[in-house]
Fold this protein.
Amino acid sequence: MSKSRASLLLAVLAVATGAYPAGAQVSVRNYRFKLLTRSQEPQLSGEISPGVAPRGTYYEVETDAEGRATRIAAITNGQKTSETLLRFAEHAKLPSEFDKIEAGQKTGLVVIERDDAGNRVREDSFTVNGALIEYVTYSYDPDHVEQDFFTTAGRRSEYALHYYSAKGTLVRSIKFPNADNLFRRTEWEYQDATGLPDSRRQFVDGKLHISVTYTYNAEGGLVRTDAYDSNHSWFAADEFKDEIRTKRFYKEAGGTRETRLTYDDKGWLKEATLYYRDAFVCRFVYDRYPNGTARQTRALGPKDEPWAEYPDYEVFDVKRNGEPTDGQLPGTVLHKKGNWW
């Protein structure tokens, strides 16, 4: 880390946690959508009238006496899921750093560097203790913006290409999760007016593997996703209520597999019940740490006999042999051998 960047970090860490000076005028408004722009600054749209009780996901935004957004909170069904607390140099219009908060706990700090036009060109992410986690750079070309992710050792780990509409809001992204493997990528299409994803397509070895479409209600709440194979044949869907996944369907050769999900009053997944051709197969129950992180998932058969244990993971979707659909997970113990359905 350069001396100037280290000095900046020390200055940032020394800032008092209060977001506003005493006597500052603060206004709070709610918005339905948060759009990403070419300059990498969020743009809020779809303001919700003060007398309307918001549903689903929306954004609560605080602005200071200079009209600058100083806090942006994502709220889903009345629960604050994340917050961004932005700080500014005196009288600057754009933030120089922000805190990241998840479930009410500060999880990190991001320091921003800009070019002469005000575009973000670099973001350094730190832990709450000031240790560098990663840094991200942005390169601005006439028709797109390249976003590169680097490890603390300076190795590029992943990158993305972002494309924008005539008004400067994100409409398409091509993301490469492994910078060393350009044959695996995901392409996203976004709605210009809302910033919500319309579709995504996953490519493996340069060939289309899976495509997914998104369906929303009139308020912009997600209600369904549908998945299609490389031949554009439907094979799976997720259903959502108040933007929380409640069901997952899979089309299989012998019939349809369905998982039904229920949640506790904190919004944490409480139980997932698996059916095949409408017949009960097993259920998944969850042991959690106090902050909600999964300690273990247990699969229980029709008589509540143990079928599997998945330490440190939240699992609700498995293959016929009980292995998670996301791949083998360390520590998995399968008590029931052979096919589960």
Helices lie at 3-13.
